[in-house]
Target: Fluoride-specific ion channel
Amino acid sequence: MTTGFCGGFTTFSTFAYESVTLARTHELLLLFAYAAGSVLVGMVAAFAGLWLARFV
Model:
């Protein structure tokens, strides 16, 4: 449980750092694509995991 808790913080901090870096360098299109893509892929992975869990 500790690994998952700490892993969540490091994953989010990396996402936040990369997003801020893109914003600071005025790469707004890339920032939007990165943020939207990360959230979208995360949601798809979560739904896929829940869907697969029904068969186990």
